[in-house]
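Work Package 4 report. The design task specified in the project plan requires that, given a folded chain encoded as structure tokens, an amino acid be chosen for each position. We show below one input record used in the internal validation round.
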């Protein structure tokens, strides 16, 4: 079988697609981080209770829960191309609307809708990127996808600190997410449909045109790598052999993001509780964001060299130990606390990039978007609950027990990865998605075209 597509060199098309696709996590990181800074002004402005603070912080995560699953289902049913641009238009409108809210209720509703739009973008963008990218570059580019989350978070802290100097600066903070979202929408216009998806729905002529446009005039459908022969519907997904894979992805994803999202939503409050001064807490939040980005970049470098399985296990282990140390010694000197926080940030990077590598590699094209969306949705249940409980935990339990709980959750992710994490390094999408004992059917594509 030809390997023209899977072994293609990394082209300018692939680089642009990776950049445009990563716009979703950039906006997500921006939105989930800017709220942490904005809450400094929002809390006294609306006289918020700890419960209301938690609801505002968690609302976007709840929206992601619904949006990711629906977006995944829609992209499998109607294709990646159309939804790739449409889903972010709603995000622009809701972001601007946040500037005009006059009570906590409507702010929660708008954060919920924004999360819905962000969640829908994840399975759409990652499915499109995975299905175009050569196997050598699939892990690094999907891993690099999540690094933009931390770029967005870092930018949010910078913008937020500047706007804090203005009265009602929180309104401008929340509305500002419309700017990158609009830019991303404009850049994505003209992106072609996935040829793998076009083949799955029988649109062979269109698939051929896309292949020639992206890979060269001599490339045909015969050069498109085969995938697993069986067709798995969304309804059959959990009942089939893919149910175990869905369980693994959901559990490790949840264990990875529950502590991280809590840190981002209430980073300054957590650092202040660890007895850092207010100014140092805000500066520390921005510095730790940079360390998160560094960790993801290192993980992108290691994902092919180290392998998927060792990377995720070690990432969970050492980051979990850093959180436990913070919980056991909350009264340590400020430089020790900052060192431990700075250690957690880069060490968790391996689990962050695998959130997008594993789901896109372990499921076939016909349900890839739905599987990614479902896993993203299920993981957000724990993340939303965790984010909601952070201010309550800080008030009732204190910072030490709160950080110990975060460490235990992280180490649970390590244990699950030891038992369930597969190794997919060097595999084609078809090989990675095939269930154990089954291989991609080489003749199936030619037979479907002939029929």
């Amino acid at each position: 079988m030809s390997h023209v597509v899977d072994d293609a060199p990394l082209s300018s098309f692939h680089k642009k697609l990776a950049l445009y696709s990563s716009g979703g996590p950039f906006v997500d990181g921006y939105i989930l981080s800017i709220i942490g800074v904005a809450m400094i002004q929002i809390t006294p402005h609306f006289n918020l209770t700890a419960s209301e603070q938690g609801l505002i912080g968690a609302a976007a995560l709840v929206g992601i829960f619904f949006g990711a699953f629906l977006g995944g289902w829609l992209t499998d049913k109607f294709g990646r191309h159309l939804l790739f641009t449409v889903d972010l238009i709603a995000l622009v409108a809701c972001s601007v609307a946040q500037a005009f809210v006059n009570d906590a209720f409507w702010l929660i509703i708008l954060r919920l809708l924004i999360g819905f739009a962000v969640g829908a973008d994840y399975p759409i963008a990652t499915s499109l990127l995975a299905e175009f990218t050569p196997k050598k570059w699939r892990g690094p580019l999907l891993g690099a996808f999540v690094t933009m989350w931390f770029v967005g978070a870092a930018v949010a802290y910078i913008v937020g600190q500047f706007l804090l100097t203005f009265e009602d600066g929180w309104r401008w903070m929340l509305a500002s997410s419309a700017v990158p979202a609009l830019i991303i929408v404009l850049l994505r216009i003209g992106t072609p449909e996935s040829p793998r998806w076009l083949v799955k729905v029988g649109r062979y002529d269109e698939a051929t045109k896309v292949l020639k446009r992206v890979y060269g005039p001599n490339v045909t459908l015969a050069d498109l790598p085969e995938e697993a022969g069986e067709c798995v519907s969304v309804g059959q997904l959990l009942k089939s052999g893919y149910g175990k894979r869905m369980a693994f992805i959901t559990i490790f994803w949840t264990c990875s993001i529950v502590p991280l999202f809590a840190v981002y939503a209430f980073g300054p409050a957590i650092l202040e509780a660890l007895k850092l001064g207010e100014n140092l807490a805000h500066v520390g939040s921005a510095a730790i964001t940079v360390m998160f980005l560094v960790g993801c970049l290192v993980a992108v470098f290691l994902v092919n060299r180290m392998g998927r399985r060792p990377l995720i296990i070690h990432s969970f282990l050492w980051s979990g130990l850093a959180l436990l140390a913070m919980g056991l010694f909350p009264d340590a000197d400020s430089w020790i606390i900052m060192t431990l926080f700075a250690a957690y940030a880069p060490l968790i990077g391996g689990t962050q990039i695998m959130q997008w590598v594993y789901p896109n590699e372990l499921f076939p094209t016909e349900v890839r978007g739905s599987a990614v969306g479902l896993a993203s949705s299920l993981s957000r249940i724990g993340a939303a609950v965790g984010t909601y409980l952070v201010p309550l935990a800080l008030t009732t339990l204190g910072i030490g027990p709160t950080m110990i709980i975060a460490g235990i959750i992280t180490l649970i992710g390590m244990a699950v990865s030891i038992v369930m994490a597969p190794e997919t390094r060097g595999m084609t999408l078809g090989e990675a998605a095939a269930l154990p004992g089954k291989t991609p059917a080489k003749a199936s594509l030619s037979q479907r075209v002939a029929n």
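The chain has a mean pLDDT of 82. Validation will be extended to a larger panel in the next phase.
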